[in-house]
Amino acid sequence: MSFGLALSGGGTKGAAHVGVLLALEEAGMRPSSIAGTSAGAIVAGLYATGTNAPALKQMVMDLSKTGMSLCDADFVNLLKAVPQLLFRHKIDITGLFKGNRLEKFLCAQTDNKNIMDANIKTIIPAVDINSGETIVYTSSLRNVDAVEGVTWKTDIPICQAIRASMAVPAVFRPKQIGDLCLVDGGVTNTLPVDLLTAAGESNVLAVDVTKEYEVPARMNIIDITTHSLSIMSTRLKELSSHGEKLLLKPQLPRESGLLTFEQMEQCMDAGYEAAQMSMAAIKAIFK
Hints:
Strands 1, 2, 4, 5, 6, 8, 9, 10 and 11 form a nine-stranded mixed sheet that branches. A two-stranded parallel ribbon has the order 3-7. It has helices spanning about 15-25, 40-50, 55-65, 75-85, 100-110, 160-165, 195-200, 220-240, 265-275, 280-285; strands spanning about 5, 35, 95, 120-130, 135-140, 150-155, 170, 175, 180-185, 205, 245-250. The chain is globular. The chain is an alpha/beta fold. β1 (about 5), α1 (about 15-25) and β2 (about 35) form a beta-alpha-beta unit.
């Protein structure tokens, strides 16, 4: 039976998605379509362009040690922001990190492939902050249903779509594509089950690595952003009926967060364990 895989956002916690894919591949199961938001978009895009689960596992192990080097701080605009704040001038900075290194890394890993050349149906949402619309990049517009507030697009390097979907507000600069100023797809859709359904996939396995809201132990900008997104994703899930056939919610390390690269291997293990524990149900529904 064909099935779609929906992967939520969640920063470096998205390594759990790799663990789920490892368990699925070991069981001889591969999705026929995949949708991912933010961190989920990274895993979805890499997987759809030919990076298999063992290769993704190695990538997680490498990034757990070197991942922070991909976060290129926008020092120039950070320094300029101080007097701008003090004297109430227009503030130029749009994110702590430029995102250029990460995009270059993603383009190399995907061989700069066009999303239309993906091996399976691929869906990656982002949000245009000018219009508030959800912009969904997909490998094919065939048999795609209209969704209110959603514009479907194709024919773009998949690394650009990923970069747009993972532009967490205040953390990464928005991604400019044509007239669109794009930020994290999780602003409107943190778990894109409904987009898979709109693209014709009736059997969906969803993986949610967002955390339930907890009172922040610290109050730095990353923690504030992380917990704000946690509140937002909780509210979005309360308001929407995703319609997945099965939802996996890995038990992630308490210390894991938006940019906790050192926790990526533990998150991957948690995803693998969650899939293994539910494998009987997964096979019963999807195989």
